[in-house]
Amino acid sequence: MIIPVDRSSLPQAAAIHSISWQESHRSFCSPDFVALHTPERQLKYLSDKIARGSRLYLLVEDAPVGIVCVTGSLIEDLYVLPDKQNMGCGTRLLKYAIGKCESIPTLWVLENNRDAQRLYRRMGFRETGKINAGSGKLKEIEYARTTSL
User: Fold this and answer.
1) Using an 8 Å Cβ cutoff, are 26 and 35 in contact?
2) Which fold has domain 2-103?
3) Cα(126)–Cα(124) distance, rounded to whole angstroms?
4) What is the pLDDT, as a whole number, of residue 135?
5) pLDDT single digits (tens) 10-44
6) Cα within 13 Å of Cα(95), Cβ side
7) CA distance 148 to 79
8) Which DSSP helix (H) or strand (E) runs through 126?
9) CA-to-CA distance for 121 and 63, rounded, in angstroms?
């Protein structure tokens, strides 16, 4: 089941974000930078997003296993615990988030995140041509949903 995150479930969402972010960024970020992304830091990050109007959702099976955030039609922060990946959880969260978008769903993905790119393409997303170079070495690529399921 997918539920809106509230005050009582926000710490669980932050823990999922922390664990998943650290695991997914470990191969290309410095250990010190990875270590900064604690559950406490991610709690503040997610709280701030909610305070600015983003909607955060939690996928709960026997226990919470994934999160996704929707801001208008921007899908962000789709994270699934590492031991629950490749079991359909990301697909379920993405489908749910698409249904919560106000217009054409968009998202940004790091250029080296091939697994996420495969998922997004399978779900009807295509590159828009917009790139965010940011301050790091990796670029983010914007995707928009061009087909329906």
Assistant:
1) no
2) Aminopeptidase (3.40.630)
3) 7
4) 63
5) 999 999 999 999 998 888 888 998 899 999 999 99
6) 10
7) 23
8) strand 125-132
9) 28
Q: Is 110 helix (H, G, I), strand (E, B) or coil?
A: strand
> Quick one: which of 50, 127, 60, 54 has its CA closest to 92?
60
In terms of Cβ atoms closer than 10 Å to its own Cβ (0-12, 13-18, 19+), residue 62 is exposed
Q: Which two tokens stand for residue 46?
A: 């997610």
* Percentage of the chain lying above the pLDDT 90 cut: 80
DSSP-derived 3-state class of residue 88:
coil
pLDDT in tens, 76-92: 999 999 999 989 999 99
Handedness of CA 16, 23, 137, 140 (dihedral sign): negative
Q: Where are the domains of the chain?
A: 2-103
